[in-house]
Write a structure and sequence with these properties.
Number of helices: 15
Structural class: alpha+beta
Strand order of the largest sheet: 2-1-5-4-3
Strand content: 15-25%
Oligomer: single chain
Amino acid sequence: MINPFKRYRIDYLFFGSFAALIVIILGCTIWTTYVLSSKEMAKATSANQQKLLDQLNGEISSSLATLEQISLSTSRDNTLVDFLRGDVSGDTFARLQKYKEVQQSLANLTYSIPLIQGIDLYMENPFRSESNSYIQFRDLEGAASQSWHEAMRQNDFFWAGKQTIQTFQGRAEVISFVRTIVYNDRRLGYLVLHAKAKTLEEMLLGSSPDGNRMMLDASGQPLIAIGKVPDEPTWSSWKSRLNDSSGLLRLHWDREGEMLVVYSKLRQSNWMMVEITPWSSVTEGSLRLAQTIGLIGAGAILLALLLALSLSRQFVWPISKLVSAMNRYTVTGKKEELPEDYRNEFGYLFSGYRKQTERIEELYESLEIRHEQLRKAEIESLQANINPHFLYNTLDQLNWMAIESGQAEMSRILELMGRMFRIGLSNGESFITVADELEHIGYYLEIQRLRLGEGLSYRIEADEGTRKLYMPKMVLQPFVENAVVHGFHASGEGTIGIRIRPSGERLRIEIEDNGIGLRGDPDALKKRKTGGYGVRNVRERIRTHFGDSYGAELSNRPEGGTKAVVELPLLRERPGPAVRKQDRIIL
């Protein structure tokens, strides 16, 4: 995953991050406000609806219970029972009198209770009813065609839902209560009280003209309903989720969407009141609140984005200034001025950049001086290389002159000196093989034997493997020269031993002589620079090439004379232009 802080501009990142943060916070605030306020509004709405439903349930239940009680008392009236039994000993007049009494009694009910639209009495061999009467006597066989007939097979009474009946005043919508009239387990007929549906609907509507309410019977089927209510399949899937007591649910209606369902059932009541409210209506206030917060938040976002833009420019401008100065910087060119009034981190950056450029200029000046010095040193080096070649050629000419003059010994010395110079030049190499170094010192000792005669003897010990190793050139000559010049100066004779051998990862060189030895205390000699310029030169070169862990030590031999011990690293190949010294590179 790519880190955007490594790829995009800082001002874009700062502005975008700030804007995204504000949008996220505002979005979370709006959503949280909407959810919490929706829950609170749904809670308050459901509580108010619950109270209203309890009140309406009480009123309507009281009215319906009154009809049930009237139906019950009427069905047990002796006059009605005797009339339905036909127990008048075949007296037609007496039966007519009973009919008049029953009709008048039922008519009184319709007049005294405004809720009753009419009364139907199903019986065997009914009298012909008057067409303009609220009381209709119907044949018992006609009950089979009624919607409530099937329910009455298993029940003594039943509330039939909303239906339309024909009255002498026209068609009317009613809700019917049916009760079976029984005598000694014999069904005499059915008493049907028709309640005015419009009156019940008005009672159900209450003070809410836009309510969606239903009143359910004991089986959970809608008895009366107002407004938009679910169809039969939808209600069948809903009613199983209703409890036996009051409560609320949030249900989905395929046709209308989310709905808040509040239901109320009073104790010792067979009816349940249900109110259905679209969730959008419940949360309408929350939505307006969220929209208001959104508008306020949009203004806040705009202001915040302007602030973020201003801040991002304030942050980025010093960085852009510094980057521009760095891109345009040249050592000899014109410097871009940086602000000096910053006292924060930008001020530290500007100050650090100024110090860096000043240091670069100082280094550039020192490099120019060094370059000039190196150029002069190169010229001097070229000149120094000319001098040894010139001396070598001169020695070669002197050798030929000595041969022509018959000076064989002088010719030999000149020849050996020429060979020494050839090895000393070594094509400019600082490191030569141990074999070349021993050849060089051998030429020097042979010259000294020609000078001193047979009084000088020497031995060299180094196996073939050791001779193939590499070492700095001109290491042995200063120590051997000290032995010859200083150690044998008085006696004119002596012996020199040279031993070179590996010791672990070191090359150990031992140079011994039987001369007069070192003057003074050998321990004191270690505290000062022992030997002449040549020995000091060797020590300095070893320290420069290999560090302080290598070097040369001079000491007196117990049997007389001097012993020099030189320790070098074991080099199986000629080192390159740079040799590692401890933890740094020496060029």
